[in-house]
Amino acid sequence: LLPQTVIFTSVGLAIQAVMFGFLGFPLNNHPVHMVLAMLLLVTATQGFAVFITEMLPNFRIALSIVSLTGILCFSVAGFSFPVEKMYGGIAIFSYIVPIRYYFLIYIDQALNGIPIYYSRFYYVALLLFTLLPLIGLRRLRRQCEHPVYIP
To answer: How far apart are CA 129 and CA 75, in angstroms?
Structure first.
């Protein structure tokens, strides 16, 4: 995953440079906070995808579930509709996708400019998503060595 991490982080940093540097989006805190958040977002989403892959019986189903999650995460994470106004059963899903925590960091750090101390839980959540695949490494190894085809 290292090449993808480098590429996606580079693209994310380029987008941040365009947003905050050239287009003048508000950045009311130190830029390092958003750079760290972007690096954690990339590694957290990769960790989340690897965890889902570990928990499902084969890679084909895992790819379908991860793709569906990726498509729905912007809607469920609160970008298009506030999480507080969602039905409870739907709103709970916003807390199991990493992009939600990046969005909250963006609001706290870039828009509001509050001290990083108040966003520490969001950074820790992204770090935990990064470490999440450690739970099922043994299962992933077994899946890679003995793939199962389920039609």
So the answer is: 19
Question: Helix, strand, or coil here: 122?
Answer: helix
Residues 42, 29: contact at Cβ < 8 Å?
A: no
Extract the tokens encoding 130: 């990064």
151 occurs within a structural domain: no
Confidence band of 144 (pLDDT split at 50, 70, 90): confident
Q: For the chain, what is the domain count?
A: 1
* pLDDT per residue as tens digits for the range 113-138: 999 999 999 999 999 999 999 999 99
Contact 56, 11 (CB under 8 A): no
Instruction: Print the domain residue range for 26.
Output: 2-145
